[in-house]
C-alpha cells in the first residue's frame, strides 16, 4: 500500500471588492490551501467566508511559487507580487464565466506572501520541486475502470 502525505494550511486573505486599484475595499476571506502528494503538481485553494465556500481553484504549485517573484499567468488565473505599505503580498486574479455584457467575472484576492511561502516550503518537504511523479499506468487503469 502506498503512503500519502497531505499538507494543509488555513490562511486569512483579502478579497478586493469594487474597483481595480490596490486601495479598493477589501474584506477577509479564509483560504484553505492543501497539497496532496498523490497530485504532486497541484495546490487546491478553497476560499470561504462566514462558513460558506465561495470558490475552489486547483492551482499549479510551480506557478504559485513563481507568482511570488514575478507576474505569471495568461488565462483564468494570474499571480503577481505586490510590495506596498511595507508588505509583500501575492495578488491573485481569478477569471470566471462571461457575464451578459461580455465581460468576465473577475475576483482579486491578496495574500500575505510569507504565509504562502511557508505553505509551499511545507509542500517541498513532502515532494521536492523536480521530484514530482505521476503514475500514468495507475491513472489510466482507474480512468478506464470508471469509464
What does this structure look like?
By secondary structure, the chain is an alpha+beta fold. About 20% of the residues lie in helices and about 45% in strands. It is built from three helices and seven strands. It has helices at about 60-65, 115-125, 135-145, and strands at about 5-15, 25-35, 40-50, 50-60, 75-85, 85-100, 105-110. The longest helix is centred in the C-terminal third of the chain and has 14 residues, at about 115-125. The chain is globular.
SSE topology sketch:
Blueprint: E1 6-16, E2 26-36, E3 42-49, E4 52-60, H1 61-67, E5 77-84, E6 87-98, E7 104-112, H2 113-126, H3 136-146
Antiparallel strand pairs: 1-2, 1-7, 2-3, 3-4, 5-6, 6-7
Features:
3 helices, 147 residues, globular, 22% helix
List unreliable stretches of 5+ residues: none
Shape: globular
Largest sheet: 7 strands, antiparallel
The chain-level structural class is alpha+beta
Share of helix, binned: 10-25%
Reading the helices and strands in chain order gives EEEEHEEEHH
Amino acid at each position: 500500500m502506498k503512503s500519502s502525505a497531505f499538507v494543509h494550511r488555513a490562511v486569512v486573505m483579502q478579497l478586493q471588492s469594487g474597483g481595480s486599484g490596490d486601495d479598493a475595499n477589501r474584506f477577509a476571506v479564509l483560504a484553505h490551501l492543501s497539497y496532496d502528494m498523490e497530485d504532486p503538481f497541484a495546490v487546491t485553494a478553497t476560499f470561504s467566508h462566514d462558513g460558506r465556500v465561495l470558490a475552489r481553484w486547483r492551482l499549479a504549485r510551480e506557478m504559485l511559487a513563481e507568482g511570488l517573484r514575478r507576474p505569471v499567468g495568461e488565462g483564468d488565473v494570474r499571480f503577481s507580487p505586490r510590495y506596498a505599505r511595507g508588505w509583500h503580498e501575492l495578488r491573485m486574479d481569478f477569471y470566471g464565466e462571461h457575464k451578459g455584457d461580455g465581460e468576465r467575472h473577475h475576483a482579486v484576492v491578496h495574500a500575505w506572501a510569507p504565509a504562502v511561502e511557508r505553505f509551499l516550503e511545507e509542500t517541498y518537504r513532502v515532494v521536492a520541486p523536480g521530484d514530482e511523479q505521476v503514475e500514468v499506468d495507475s491513472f489510466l487503469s482507474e480512468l478506464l475502470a470508471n469509464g
